[in-house]
């Protein structure tokens, strides 16, 4: 009975293992991820993690004559339009004609808002375009149509 050969059948595999090990030991795996994505692109799944360390670092920012303060994210307003053209604004029933005045008051209260238009796919697109036109009239340029994947 033959004994199994303990040597690697592929020298390239040995090189990959050595490079991955060195990369992991030397710099915590940064290069390893790049190398694995090159070596095995079909099997790679990437996962990003948010680093709280970056947000919590005590950093003194440089100054500039034209700098503006960093603002909070705008409030997101959802406008739902069903196929029978009934409307919801932030999940509350609203007449279509009242959307303009409600958006105007929200913009005045919040300062900066973002509008997400969720329209039924069977809806005549004129209603969704009318909401986009209302946003433009009010100076709300951060709007988008919600689509299903």
Briefly, what is this?
This protein has 149 residues and is of the alpha/beta class.
Which keywords apply here?
149 residues, single chain, five-stranded mixed β-sheet, alpha/beta, flat, Nucleotidyltransferase, domain 5
What does the secondary structure layout of this molecule look like, with pairings?
Layout: H1 11-27, H2 30-39, H3 52-56, E1 75-81, E2 87-89, E3 92-94, H4 99-110, E4 113-119, H5 125-137, E5 143-145
Parallel strand pairs: 1-4, 4-5
Antiparallel strand pairs: 1-2, 2-3
Helix pairs in contact: 1-2
What would you say this structure looks like, in words?
The chain is α/β, with parallel strands linked by helices and 149 residues long. The chain has two domains: 38 residues, no CATH class; 71 residues, Nucleotidyltransferase, domain 5 (2-Layer Sandwich). A five-stranded mixed beta sheet has the order 3-2-1-4-5, covered by helices on one side. A hairpin with a 5-residue loop joins strand 1 and strand 2. Helix 1 runs antiparallel to helix 2. The longest helix has 17 residues. It is flat, with a radius of gyration of 27 Å. About 12% of the residues have low confidence.
